[in-house]
Amino acid sequence: MTKPIQPTQTTAFYVQAVLSFAVSLTSVVIALVYLPVEGWIRAFLGLGLLYVVTSTVTLCKVVRDRQELSEVSNRVDQARLDKLLAEHDPFKVDA
Fold it and tell me: What was the pLDDT predicted at 1?
């Protein structure tokens, strides 16, 4: 029986992802603060930024959940196949 491959995530990758998100969000917020426009335009752009961030987080969760669901389905299918192969006797003659 083969051991399923477990995806691994290093600490460096996690830190890089968090820092990248923080730097990009901070730079856009600073750009909005120093943008030479009226306050309502700045607020509208800030609201748009908030919407993009929340929808990105939601998309990440949906993609992760779909991947986990497919892994569970694959495990169930593999267990069924293993059971069928274990019960199958190629030398058995049907009378």
Answer: 55
3 HSE (CA, 13 A, CB side) = 3
> Sign of the CA dihedral 19, 20, 21, 27?
positive
- Residue that is written with structure tokens 């049907």 in the block: 94
The domain segmentation of the chain, as residue ranges, is: 11-87
What pLDDT, on the 0 to 100 scale, is given for residue 17? 87
> How many helical (H) and strand (E) elements, i.e. helices and strands, does the chain have?
2, 0
**Residue type at 41?**
I
The maximal CA–CA distance of the chain, rounded, in angstroms, is 89
- Written as one letter, the residue type at 91 is F
